[in-house]
Design brief:
- The protein has 2 domains: about 15-160 and about 380-429, 3-Layer(aba) Sandwich (Rossmann fold), CATH 3.40.50.720; about 165-375, 3-Layer(aba) Sandwich (Rossmann fold).
- Helices cover about 40% and strands about 10% of the residues.
- The chain has 18 helices and 12 strands.
- It has helices at about 20-25, 35-45, 65-75, 80-85, 85-95, 120-125, 145-150, 160-180, 180-190, 200-215, 230-240, 260-265, 270-280, 300, 320-330, 350-355, 380-400, 420-429; strands at about 50-55, 75, 105, 130-135, 155, 220-225, 245-250, 265-270, 280-285, 310, 335-340, 370-375.
- The strands form 2 sheets. It has a 7-stranded parallel β-sheet with strand order 8-7-6-9-10-11-12, with helices on both faces. A 5-stranded parallel β-sheet has the order 2-1-3-4-5.
- Strand 10, helix 15 and strand 11 form a beta-alpha-beta unit.
- Helix 8 crosses helix 11, helix 8 packs antiparallel against helix 17 and helix 9 (about 180-190) packs antiparallel against helix 10 (about 200-215).
- Residues about 1-20, about 30-45 and about 420-429 have low confidence and may be disordered.
- Keywords: Oxidoreductase.
Length: about 425
């Protein structure tokens, strides 16, 4: 499993998008007079040449003030949509169409990815001048961050901006697994598919009667978090507080500081099987592994308590979905909720049936929809996109003035390259 280091470990409760500015300010490289923005503005008139930023994707929408400073300090080049298609993008890199640019800037998750996976074919064509790649989104399985680091390029994601939204969504999914929301919703909207199907009123009454016997309050149950970065800690803060009263357990490749554990009342488990054995509901909230191999496999699922619950707000590639469907059918898992899928936008057919079926034609008895399925929506709020855009710009500003970025993910692979743009760096510092 990849180290869940997509965002810095906070010293207090996880940072929400509402406090993103204060977190950025605390992480940004200090300037000589303590005013980052003023130093940027003062340097604009004197520097002979602006560093070039390659802006891939849609224009800025939400943060015009930051972009005014950003575009004043950097020469921003935005390739057209046809130029971002992989064959043309490769051609442009080979011919150095955009010069010796210093940064790659992708402020939106929905655009800017037309060239496909950032693998060796693309990365090897980048000019030596590139120092930072800052992108929207928390996940980075679409970019070879190890290779970027070895080439001297810091990759910064924007997971910090999405943490609040993803955690909120995870709370909904956790509650769904305890209260069987797909069953309750499906029964209320049931439409007969054959003349032999029962009437909607019968399905409604059956759910009203039988869902009660299968439902539980989350309070007092153990929530097992796989990954304890900003998203995991946000979930812990929400579900472990008096409102829900769950016991928090977690597994991570690196144990978090004692102060973080104490504040969130979280118990560390050094290996994944031991976490699964104590958890009533497991939430997967860690970045994808570098090789996209599943973490939740058939053998790993055997460690779960019978009737436990499973939620995935991380990456679909981390779960063997056929093994998960087997565990649901066997009753090892009583309910699941998945926001991400292994082959998006295609959703596993067995899981779809489990999500939608509220009447079993074979037995003639109602049965619950045991799975909640959504369309990779967990981080999708306006506030998240505002944060993506802002944080991506701030990451580039920080790296190009000598810092390591605010949310770097590949520093352990980073190999520094010779300093460029010395005049620019000196003027900012």
């Amino acid at each position: 499993m990849a180290k869940p280091n997509n965002t810095p470990v906070p010293s207090e409760l996880p940072v929400s998008p509402m406090t993103l500015q204060s977190h950025i300010a605390s992480r940004a490289s200090p300037s000589a007079n303590g005013s980052f923005e003023r130093n940027l503005a003062l340097s604009a008139a004197s520097k002979p040449k602006k560093p070039i930023v390659l802006h891939i994707g849609d224009p800025i929408k939400y943060n015009p003030g930051t972009y005014a400073t950003f575009s004043q300090e950097f020469e921003v080049i935005r390739p057209s949509t046809p130029e971002r298609e992989r064959p043309e993008f490769i051609r442009a890199l080979k011919e150095r169409r955009w010069g010796d640019f210093s940064a790659i800037f992708r402020p939106f998750w929905g655009t800017g990815g037309e060239m496909g996976k950032w693998d060796a074919e693309l990365i090897d064509l980048l000019p030596d001048s590139v120092k930072v790649f800052a992108s929207a989104g928390a996940g980075f399985d679409w970019a070879d961050t190890k290779l970027l680091g070895e080439k001297g390029i810091i990759y910064c994601n924007s997971g910090l901006a999405a943490a609040e939204a993803v955690a909120d969504f995870a709370v909904t999914m956790i509650i769904s697994t305890f209260r069987h929301l797909p069953w309750c919703m499906g029964a209320a909207t049931f439409i007969s598919s054959s003349p032999h199907s029962p009437a909607r009123e019968e399905v409604f009454r059956a759910c009203h009667t039988h869902a009660t016997a299968a439902s539980h309050n989350p309070r007092g149950h153990t929530l097992g978090l796989i990954g304890f970065g900003n998203i995991g800690q946000h979930i812990a803060a929400k579900m472990g507080n008096p409102a829900f009263g769950m016991h928090i357990a977690y597994h991570d490749l690196e144990r978090k500081p004692a102060a973080v554990e104490a504040q969130l009342r979280a118990v560390f488990y050094p290996d994944l099987p031991s976490l699964l054995r104590v958890s009533d509901c497991v939430v997967l909230c860690t970045p994808a592994s570098p090789d996209n191999t599943p973490l939740i496999t058939a053998s790993m699922l055997q460690h779960l308590r019978p009737g436990s619950r499973f939620v995935n707000v991380a990456r679909g590639s981390l779960v063997d979905e056929e093994a998960l469907a087997d565990a649901l059918e066997a009753g090892t898992i009583s309910a699941a909720a998945l926001d991400v899928h292994a082959d998006e936008p295609r959703v596993n057919n067995r899981l779809v049936r489990m999500a939608t079926q509220v009447y079993c034609h074979d037995t003639g008895h109602p049965r619950p929809g045991r799975v909640m399925l959504t369309c990779h929506n967990a981080g999708g709020t306006i506030e998240t996109h505002i944060g993506f855009e802002e944080l991506s710009m701030r990451n580039i500003m920080d790296v190009l003035r000598g810092g390591n970025g605010i949310t770097p993910v590949n520093l352990k692979h980073f190999k520094p390259k010779p300093v460029i743009c010395d005049d620019y760096k000196n003027e900012l510092s």
